Amino acid sequence: MKGPYDSLMFITHRPDLVLVEGEGSWLRDRAGRRYLDFVQGWAVNCLGHSPKPVVEAIAAQAAKLINVSPAFYNEPMLRLADLITANSCFDRVFFANSGAEANEGAIKLARKWGAVHRGGAYEIITTHNGFHGRTLATMSASGKQGWDRLFEPKVPGFPKVPLNDLAAVEAAIGERTVAVMLEPIQGEAGVVPAERDYLRALRELTRRRGLLLIVDEVQTGMGRTGSLFAYQQAGIEPDIMTLGKGIGGGVPLAALCAREEVCCFEPGDQGGTYNGNPLMTAAGCAVLETLLQPGFLEEVAAKGEYLRRRLEELSDRRGQAGARGQGMLQALLLRRPVAADVVARALQAGLLLNAPRPDILRFMPALTVSRDEIDQMAATLERCLTEALAAADQAG
Ligand code: PLP
Predict the structure, then answer these.
(1) In angstroms, rounded to a whole number, what is the distance separating the alpha carbons of residues 212 and 258?
(2) Which of ligand 1's atoms lies nearest the C-alpha of 220?
(3) Which CATH number goes with the domain that contains 67?
(4) What is the pLDDT averaged over residues 128-154?
(5) Hey, whose CA ends up nearest to atom 13 of ligand 1?
(6) Which atom of ligand 1 is closest in space to residue 254's alpha carbon?
(7) pLDDT higher than 90, residue 376
(8) Which residue lies with its CA nearest to atom 1 of ligand 1?
(9) What residue's CA is closest to ligand 1, atom 5?
(10) Residue 142 alpha carbon to ligand 1 centre in Å
């Protein structure tokens, strides 16, 4: 007999519950149980579940115009591109549907630029443990453990170096190198920051060697780290940036942003049926206009500090290895590989958490989360962590 979930293609194990409703930091399942959400669709719902500005923007736009074709301009597409370029160091934007697709665009743009300006150079230096998406090229660019043997043969041209090691980048640069690509904070790797001095030195090095610097801000962008974009905190100006996740506030939207000198696509090089779709870009406008309201990002940074302090206190009390991260992208470092058990116990207790590594918990709440909700999360987390550590002790 077919089970309730068996018409879906199996890709991963999911808990036996169906979510039906959300508001802010809270979710409700079909059985009426409530959950405090510190995953938020993997850092996607930056304004929480069903936020008023996004709901209203989508409803208004849906009533007016849902889709044209990328062969024509539409109003929200132009407004969002203007908003992004007015608030960043980039001059032009291409809209896509997912982070991976934006990164594919960045890889294509860098290769095209290499073909036009660098005698056919095409290699993009990326980082060990980096994550850029699940298409073939972005999996090839990623340095996620275990992926090196998946879906062979990979797309060639992505030599990898350790993060925060400038000498390794210098050693990897060759005649075929066209760019260096990295996340300002490696999210999937367990919230591992690129040091600010390293980013500054990398910018200087890439400029000196005539290479492009590409920042993947799919996870760190859109206010997540307390500034609109994470690269701004290092005081650098990259050549290319990709956005995803938070930019749509929950709807599929992503962006490839580039400086004028780099924009060399010709007709036919880049596209996609939904690029710049007015319904999605209207949601993006509502998100960005909210983030740009006076004081919004300062409050994100302050609440990020608050979350960090709560995690550090908890770590000290429970003998764990501390916390790291920036703004609303934080991690708790455990001394034992109990993260998955903590996540399972937290789910039973009505709290959604994420474990990117066996000994790391990641926190990606809505940027609008309250201090009270952070306190509630920390209390439940401490209970679940204590239980998980005791269970691990018992198991020996
Ligand atoms: N880049 C980074 C830094 C990410 O964290 C992710 C997703 O987690 C992606 C790219 C891929 O984005 P998407 O899943 O929207 O394709």
Answers:
(1) 10
(2) 3
(3) 3.40.640.10
(4) 95
(5) 99
(6) 15
(7) yes
(8) 132
(9) 219
(10) 10
Token digits for 64? Answer: 């007016």
How many domains, in total, are found in the chain? Answer: 2
Q: Which of 208, 219, 274 is nearest to 241 (CA)?
A: 219
Asked whether residue 279 falls in the same domain as residue 349, the answer is: no
If asked whether residues 205 and 163 sit together in one domain, one would say yes
**Mean pLDDT calculated for residue range 108-120:** 98
- Three-state DSSP state, 361: strand
Residue-wise pLDDT for 271-324, tens only, equals: 999 999 999 999 999 999 999 999 999 999 999 999 999 999 999 999 999 999
Residue nearest ligand 1's atom 12 by CA = 99
Q: Is 1 exposed, middle or buried (0-12, 13-18, 19+ CB in 10 A)?
A: exposed
Cα Rg, the chain, nearest whole Å = 21
Residue 367's domain comprises 295-395
Distance 242 CA to ligand 1 centre (A): 10
For residue 3, being part of any structural domain is answered with no
Co-location of 226 and 321 in the same domain: no
**Total-model pTM:** 0.98
User: Could you tell me which residues are beta bridge partners of residue 49?
Assistant: 24
Q: Measuring from each residue's beta carbon to the nearest atom of ligand 1, which residues come in under 6 Å?
A: 42, 98-100, 103, 131-133, 183, 187-188, 216, 218-219, 244
* Ligand 1 atom at shortest distance from the alpha carbon of 217: 3
Q: How far is the CA of 335 from the centre of ligand 1 (A)?
A: 27
* Average pLDDT of span 233-258: 98
Q: Would you please indicate which residues are annotated as catalytic (active-site) residues?
A: 131, 216, 245
Using the mean position of ligand 1's atoms as its centre, give its distance from the Cα of residue 231 in Å: 17
Distance CA 201, CA 204 (A): 5
**What's the one-letter identity of residue 246?**
G
Contact 305, 103 (CB under 8 A): no
Phi, psi of 158 (to 5 degrees): -130, 70
Quote the ligand 1 centre to 132 CA distance (angstroms): 5
> What one-character DSSP code corresponds to residue 335?
S
Written as one letter, the residue type at 316 is D
Shared domain check, 171 and 87: yes
Taking residue 224's Cβ as centre, other Cβ atoms within 10 Å add up to: 29
Q: Do residues 182 and 192 make contact, with C-beta atoms less than 8 angstroms apart?
A: no
Mutate to test the pocket of ligand 1, among 245, 256, 274, 329 (most ligand atoms within 8 A of CB): 245
